[in-house]
Amino acid sequence: YPSEFLLQKITEDNQMPVHLHVSVSLQYVAGLKGNALIEFFHGNIAEVENEELRHLMWSSVLFYKTPNVEVMACVLLSTKAIYFLLDDSFIHSDEHQSGFWKKENSDCENSSFYLSCCFVLKLNDLQSVNVGLFDQYFRITGHSADHIVTCLTRDSYNTHTFIQQLMAVLSLLARTPSPEPVDKDFYSEFGSKNTGKMENYELIHSSRVKFIYPNEEEIGDLAFLVAEKMDGLTDLQSLNILLYVLAFQVNHVEGSAQNTSSLQPKTLILTSSDLFLFDEDYISYPLPEFAKEPPKRDKYQLADGRRIRDLDRVLMGYQTYPQALTFVFDDVQDQDLMQNLTLDHFGD
């Protein structure tokens, strides 16, 4: 340990997204290669001597206690824990976090020393992993509200790779088996003999960690919600969700030193007749077991929606991934989003 293959893979994975703001301390981490990265992990992050770094990923993360603050993190998976390396500015970005993060290094604030804080979730404390729709994100749940984190990978490949690596590492954990009866076979556990339909996609790992995947009902619920936003005039049977993707809406900030643009996280949903942007709650649903009351906001809140037939043109940027798309719609006077969307222009 570490093998040449692992060194090469971790070096390749250490690519921070260019479109998101990253602090100086995290830029330093992103510049490390090969053995320097492994030495940095053992010298600054690892909690025990014999743990091995198995996977590295850059991702936006959300914490259950601060659902409105999306922050960039370097996620490190070892044989003992999952580490979320965050920049120090996150601690001061929200006053509600003062109790969540313990400020022990306030004497470093005014120096030229750039500080990162590291949130640790031990694998032994891990209870479940919820994978989001179309593998765009996943939520890791521990034993309390402080131990719930969502990784917004916005990329099915990164999600799939991390879940695979996590399952492999969990297989190494020696956990005492629970005193439950012998596990039933797959079909009697998950299938209903009356309908033959899967009730839920829940995989219980040998380490007793649950991996929960979205079932067909979740897409049905989403289609129903979209139909409701379309004034309920669309036949639900004919409504197909063609695309669900976590994206950013670009808002240009004029008047600043350099006409910068801020990125607002949005869920983009495309149907055969409309394009929708939703504000989605990625961290509160499904409700954790200890939640006493439902979240303050709905899972999906409509931010914008336009008819495809009003789309005039689509402009594509020339930069590499992530690709920027600009949708230009016809400026229809007095167009109300919630109006009768089945109304024909050439009708009476």
From TrEMBL:
Highest taxon above the source species: Eukaryota
This protein's record includes keyword Nucleotide-binding: no
A single Gene Ontology CC term: endosome membrane
A Pfam family: PH_NISCH_C
Residue span(s) of domain PLEKHM2 PH: 117-178
GO BP terms: Golgi organization; lysosome localization; regulation of protein localization
Compartment(s) where it occurs, according to its Swiss-Prot or TrEMBL record: Cytoplasm
Main localization, broad class: cytoplasm
InterPro entries noted in UniProt: PH_domain-containing_M2 (IPR053015), PH_NISCH_C (IPR057714), PH_PLEKHM2 (IPR057288)
GO terms assigned for molecular function: kinesin binding
Keywords from the named record: Cytoplasm
Stretches assigned to the Nischarin C-terminal PH domain: 241-347
Keyword match Cytoplasm: yes
Protein name: NISCH protein
